[in-house]
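Below is how a single chain appears once it has passed through the pipeline. First comes the sequence as given, then the structure the pipeline wrote out for it. We keep one example in the README because the format questions we get most often are answered faster by looking than by reading.
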Amino acid sequence: AAAEIAEETGSEVVPVPGDLSRHSDIQDLFRATVDRFGGLDIVVNNSGGPPPGSALGADEEAWDRAIQLSLLFFVRMSREAVPHMRRRGGGRIINILASSVKQPIPNLVLSAATRLGAVGYAKTLADEVAGDGILVNNVAPGYLLTDRMMEIIDDRAGVNGTTADEAVRALESNIPMGRIGRPEELANLVVFLASDAA
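Resulting structure:
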């Protein structure tokens, strides 16, 4: 993936493998970034979503994993980023969440519960670091045509006894534009939020 990104963009890409549910791996990520580039200006926090689950059906292991990756991940990434950004006189922290922070989505309780906690943390952090020139934004996209979205669609199709194509069409019929969003549309928003124009 790093080679593909570097080839497509002409930018230097430094891959740092790790498990984002482990604080030590997050610390290694920041250390490698700052060592290589001399500082830190922008962090885009995007951990992907927890597995589907109902309010009563998600077990302890699923809850623990969701809390690590969909709540504590955002906390840890931000805590590690802020000191580096303060040293540089400012920065941007952009959290990619989910529309479930506004309205729960059936069978995605782990996402809704943990990401609402991430929103509360980020809003508090934004107030605390704004004076340092650090802007914190939450982006809660709706449906985007990603691999994760197709997993959810396949799961929904299985529950409803339909095909994935039928599930996509049903979903699109409830979207005012009549289509699922494209990942690059979200990317353009994130680029704006990371820019000086924001």
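The chain has a mean pLDDT of 92.

See the next section for the split statistics.
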